[in-house]
Amino acid sequence: MKNTGSTIIVALLLLLSSRNFVDHASAAGKDYVNQADLAAICRVVAISKSSKPVNSASTLTEEDVHEIDEINLTIAESNWKSRFATNEDQKKEPQKACTTADGKEDCLKHWSRWEQTSIRLAKPLAAKKMLQIQQEKLDSAAGRAARIAVAALAAEAHAIKADFEQNIKPRLKPGDDDPYLMIKKAIFGAKATADETANCKVTMTSNRASDCKLPAAVQALCFAAVCICAQDGTQSKELYGTAASSAESVGTWTSGAVQQKWKHVLTACNKLPAQLFSATSLLAAAAGLRTRFKQYNGGANSEVYMGTIATASHNCAQSNGHGCIPITDAIPHGSEATKTLNWLDTLEAAAAKQVTIEAVTTEAAAAKKRIHMLTKQAKAALVALKWAEPAPEYTTPSENKTTSTNKGDDSLKQSEKECNTKGKDKEEECDKFKAQGCVYKEDGKDGKKCTLSKEGKKEAAEKAKKETGNDGNTDCSSHHDQKSSEAVNKQGQTTTCG
């Protein structure tokens, strides 16, 4: 079990606080022989008074991977996006390769996830939240790199979720009683509900000796408390103290009188404030009850019991000033126990269940956090691509050589690119550069709606002729020394290079 040292420390602190409760419940009296037992029982009651804990182990759901899936699809290639429907009424059939694949079920599951993501992204609110990337950037080298990175992040997020679903969450078995209900049943009886706070739901007869031994005494902790402390026609001492062992309205030990006696114990227990409901507190409470087990050494008549027992007899109803429960048959002693302490077993089972719940809840929170961090990384990749400057086109050395001798083409491309960039796909922006030959075309491609007009292309071509020497004159810019310049001049060109 994790954090065993911490659990032991907390258990000791809780036991010490129980001691303080005993000391302050009432002034010490010679008849108050079972007050330590009262403290251990009241500790359990105090835990049951706390609010039912909200266990969040099931909060890791499909929605936790929705955002990273949406980023993954936003950045995907166009031909992949187009395969999926954008509304529920127009779902598309999965690709044939998916329906005939060896892993058909997994393939169809992934297909469905992509399609649901596509449908979510098509909704106005979702589309508004998601960054829109120009197709030119998506098709660029940077776009391809971002696509690979985001796909890897999404795959890791789904692996985390799958591991939780397959290996962690199943530790919580559906249909089991929850620990909060279990502690109520331990205190108030098997018929108790999670809302029970007062009623001792057990069967009581008119025979204290029979009721206060196994198996009757283990019906519920409330009944065990009554056996150890209550007054009746024979036992008239305040074994638990003035409040818990009050003689007021208790009468004799008769059938159906359990609530009259239990209410006094509950009054004393209610002096303790509600205690935190946790695995640690439940384990400490169970340990506190076990510390109240005592041994009476009487040779063949030795007995393990709770409360106080008369030395002359093990009958817990025949001696004034004594109240007890013999539990020897529930303790292994050379052979298996023949009876059980139901309320203690239930309490310890609740503690074990709560340990599992808290561990799974912690792991669910950790998995959720990791997925959140992966989503942030994917979002950062999308933002970086959105605002990245267009990367310069890569050209091979041979392309560079061609470009250097085709300056006219370069000039035309440069003019076209300036219109694309400065116009920003907006008519009002494009109009600002009409003087440079730019014109806006609504039906143009994204990123190229502001383009070079026919007149602009003509002017660029004229400029190109001058730059390349195709206007009949020599392009002197390619001659950088005296020898090459003079060689050109001897060819009878119009322009003289020097």
UniProtKB/TrEMBL annotation:
VSG forms a coat on the surface of the parasite. The trypanosome evades the immune response of the host by expressing a series of antigenically distinct VSGs from an estimated 1000 VSG genes. It is a lipid-anchor; GPI-anchor. Residues 393-430, 442-498 are annotated as: Disordered. It comes from the Eukaryota. It comes from Trypanosoma brucei. It is found in: Cell membrane. GO terms for cellular component: plasma membrane; side of membrane. Residues 1-27 form the signal peptide. Residues 407-430, 442-469 have a biased composition (Basic and acidic residues). The keyword Ribonucleoprotein does not apply. Residues 395-406, 485-498 have a biased composition (Polar residues). This is Variant surface glycoprotein 1125.1046. Keywords: Cell membrane, Glycoprotein, GPI-anchor, Lipoprotein, Membrane, Signal. Residues 23-372 form the Trypanosome variant surface glycoprotein B-type N-terminal domain. The lineage of its organism: Eukaryota, Discoba, Euglenozoa, Kinetoplastea, Metakinetoplastina. InterPro entries: Trypano_VSG_B_N_dom (IPR025932), VSG_C_dom_sf (IPR027446).
